[in-house]
Design a protein that fits this description.
Layout: H1 2-17, H2 19-39, H3 44-81, H4 98-151, H5 161-189, E1 198-201, H6 203-219, E2 223-228, E3 234-237, H7 239-255, E4 261-268, E5 272-279, H8 286-289, H9 301-307, H10 313-323, E6 329-333, E7 337-345
Parallel strand pairs: 2-4
Antiparallel strand pairs: 1-3, 4-5, 5-7, 6-7
Helix pairs in contact: 1-2, 2-3, 4-5, 5-10, 6-7, 7-10
């Protein structure tokens, strides 16, 4: 009884799952059993042979069906391999394989995304190399031109020799800054730069950053100031890297301001502090704000060439601030000035 029950349960299981393939063998089994009943052949051997034939037919049909499914899967994989599938919605398997269909669709979407990412990466690499070569070429050609002019006799002309040497030195400094920024951004993006987080007073970092530009700001007639309500405020950050962030932001603010003030503001919150660098400079147009953190992007290339800079400073700022689990924010108006701000946490 137990054996017959298990056979019937198994039969109904397969009938429910593969009913379309069990109709024909069930029909044959019914005929055989009726024929055996008519001939009174209900011996155990006859029953075993009948069931054997029944399951043999089922297996044969299932093998045929599975081969068809495997061929369909093989064709889909070949189409994906040869880039003949345009969308995951065009991938269809039989209704018995919904999970595998979803897996193939997910695999196709991932492959497509990976290919698009690699194409974008290649385009970015090409653009980066083009920008680097252009940025290197500009100071090198300028230095070469001034030195050639001096060697051709201008070195003995007191009216121009110092002027040309100062210009050559200016472009040499730009070249050195470019190489340092390239090394920094390469280390950041490759994950080789390790930040040294510690709980430290923020005031010495701010004072050190301001001291670097006090003379430059004074020459341009700009007021360089600091506003911090709690001089003893301690935050959790990498001091050297935050100095690098403030240096880039202060440098840009002074370069792109002809009058007014450049100010660092520290606004203490419950869990940290918002640090803002505010200036009264030229301002940034709304169409440029979303792109200023791209490598080598300049809002005004002609003015940037005259002022100097590598075009990598804000990209470095963005990476360092994000490494502190923060975000650099910009608020700017043409002719009014700009504000760059980020948040540093307290160590709780």
């Amino acid at each position: 009884m137990d054996i017959a029950s298990r056979i019937l349960n198994r039969y109904f299981y397969y009938f429910k799952k593969y009913y379309s393939f069990l109709v024909v063998p069930s029909f044959f089994l019914l005929i055989i059993l009726l024929y055996g009943f008519q001939l009174q052949l209900f011996q155990s051997v006859f029953i075993i042979l009948s069931l054997t034939l029944f399951y043999a037919l089922i297996i044969a049909l299932l093998v045929v069906h599975r081969n068809q499914e495997l061929n369909l899967i093989r064709e889909i994989l070949e189409d994906i391999t040869h880039n003949r599938v345009q969308s995951s919605t065009s991938i269809h398997l039989t209704k018995e394989l919904p999970d595998l269909e979803q897996t193939l669709k997910a695999m196709f979407s991932k492959i497509k995304n990976d290919i698009n990412y690699l194409k974008k990466l290649e385009q970015t690499r090409t653009e980066f190399l083009g920008n680097v070569s252009h940025e290197l070429r500009t100071p090198i050609f300028a230095i070469q031109g001034y030195l050639e002019t001096l060697l051709n006799g201008a070195v003995n002309d007191p009216n121009v020799n110092k002027k040309f040497l100062k210009k050559a030195l200016f472009h040499t400094d730009n070249l050195n800054m470019l190489l340092e920024d390239l090394i920094d951004i390469s280390m950041i993006e490759s994950g080789q730069m390790r930040l040294k987080f510690q709980t430290s007073p923020i005031l010495p970092v701010l004072n050190r950053s301001i001291e670097q530009f006090s003379e430059e700001a004074e020459k341009k007639g700009l007021k360089l100031s600091l506003k911090i309500d709690n001089p003893d405020l301690e935050l959790f950050f990498d001091p050297e890297r935050i100095i690098q962030v403030l240096t880039n932001l202060l440098s840009n603010s002074i370069k792109y301001s002809d009058k007014g003030e450049v100010k660092i503001i520290v606004d203490e919150k419950k869990h940290g502090a918002k640090i803002t660098v505010r200036d009264t400079g030229f301002g940034i147009s709304p169409k440029d704000i979303d792109r200023i953190f791209e490598r080598f992007y300049r809002t005004d290339r002609d003015r940037s060439r005259q002022i100097g800079g590598t075009g990598l400073g804000l990209a470095i700022v963005k990476h360092i601030v994000e490494a502190h689990n923060s975000k650099i924010e910009v608020d700017s108006k043409i002719g009014v000035g700009s504000e760059f701000s980020f948040f540093l946490k307290k160590y709780l």
